[in-house]
Hints:
The protein has 287 residues and is of the alpha+beta class.
Amino acid sequence: MRNNLDRLGMPNQDTKQADDAAAALMQSLSFVVPTEHVDLPSKGLFYPEGHPLYQKDTLEIRYMTAKDEDTLTSRNLLKKGIAVERLLQDLIVDKRITLDQLLIGDKNALIVAARKTAYGSEYNTKVSCPSCGKNQTYEFDLDSCNIYEGCTDEQLNEVSVIRTDKGTFIGSLPILKTPVEIRLLSGKDEQIILQRQKQAQESKNAIETLYSDQLKLMIVSINNVSDPKVLQQAIPLLPAKDSIYIRDLYKAINPTLDLSHNFVCAGCSFETRLELPFTADFFWPKR
Ligand SMILES: [Zn+2]
């Protein structure tokens, strides 16, 4: 049977030999896929001892190749909505590290860095003005995204929040006036939240429960009660003011890449900070 190698006038080899030949070709061109160290917003401070990222402030990724572009355009993966997840996992050099374990803030830094290796830092996408609703193409500069490291211990002290040696944070609920302990969310938590949102959208009767889904994953204990069954029942009953307090606290402690940009509307000149959206243009820029 004739294969592509025959058509190229190359001898018919088995796959192993072809792989070796491809490696030799790349070597003769002195081509090594470059890697890059992505700064981790968490500085590795919230990974448990023994984790490959424990107290590490960078994560090594390799640049995207043509094969990665195949991953991004694979119909099969796209249908499952997992093309980007698969790509990011492939780019991580240390195979002991899975996306699931990465903190969401670190994962955001990884997504932005990966995109820059292939398509650069200029990101044009459609946004709609929060004031007048006008749709427009806006240019975001990925290089201007800065790391937010989370509150310092001094700042936490001022608002009576304690950082524990387990990497959790204890604050005090304003209405119930009891301690609440929260933790940072991981890539796996993010997947659980997306899954629940998807289920809610698919079933007609379900009301979306985004806020309580997030809280259920964030909250480690309330008033020292940490039994998951009790918490799952109690969390949807939290007073709104307490729920808002927890979400604000999370934002303050969460180390991440700050994705907000200055936005000036082309229609009505309204100015605001706008978070850059991860739309299809992010990994599939129009050319
Ligand atoms: Zn406007």
